[in-house]
């Protein structure tokens, strides 16, 4: 125990040297500003609190409109000004078009081959072309306009009944179910949320899959491949 005490005293010094060394190399590489305290393994995750947008706004207010953060093993660029966002999304859009290879993309995105997870290239352009023509074209959206109108009317009737019964309504859930029903009716011709669900068991399984996908996507958010 007597020999261990001097070594223990070096830990704060080693940690301080680690922090300042990372900060020095960060400056040397001409990267955007970042909080100086970049902890091992977790990076800047300790700065995040709910709600997330307020935490990021506070960081941007202190370090500027473009901030480079470290979330675990991943670097995250936080852009909070219109001019910087335009620089990223118009002049350098090809550079920022690639998706990070996270575990969510591997397990939930068919090994990074779906439109949401594949990197910019021929495969992505082909998927985007198919989506634009078959699903998102003006003609196609006009053909399916009645579905969106029908779903909005259904939700309004549901909200009206809830108002008459003086029930509390979670609007976040209402908008989520409205969006999912509209999308799934356009794609598969079926409703899976709310009232008038025809195939109850299939709808239940679908809701469970969506719930698990959203949960796993959040957990995998900062995980590397």
From TrEMBL:
The chain crosses the membrane at residues 7-25. It is a single-pass membrane protein. Its main location: membrane. The keyword Ligase does not apply. Keywords: Heme, Iron, Membrane, Metal-binding, Monooxygenase, Oxidoreductase, Transmembrane, Transmembrane helix. The keyword Oxidoreductase applies. GO terms for molecular function: heme binding; iron ion binding; monooxygenase activity; oxidoreductase activity, acting on paired donors, with incorporation or reduction of molecular oxygen. It is found in: Membrane. InterPro entries: Cyt_P450 (IPR001128), Cyt_P450_E_grp-I (IPR002401), Cyt_P450_sf (IPR036396), Plant_Cytochrome_P450_Monoox (IPR050651). GO terms for cellular component: membrane. It holds the Pfam family p450. It comes from the Eukaryota. This is Cytochrome.
